[in-house]
Amino acid sequence: MSSGDDGLYRAPGYPRAPVTEPTLLEKYLRLTHEALDRVTPAPPPRSFLRGASDDFLAMARAYLADAEHFSAAGDPQRALAAASYAHGWLDAGVRLGILDGGDDDQRFTLFR
Fold it and tell me: For position 4, what pLDDT does the model report?
């Protein structure tokens, strides 16, 4: 992997692909906010897995806050990456069954 002028690393042969379409970032921020609003912890409050679900939610909230910060700072590439990480934590939690996303297969990858 090589480093570009912007300090970001990318595989050789892959040019910089800037996020120039504001609606792309807006779409993923909106989807991630909606996903965060929909999920709830699945395990019982005093179970070991409840701690894991709380951790997944905390990570998603932290990455979404980072996304909002990067977006406000004019850094759409990092904002989109952070929003993607946030949604990834939520999606993984739903897929594992430690977060409940209902039957929403538009925002989450459901097992069945």
Answer: 54
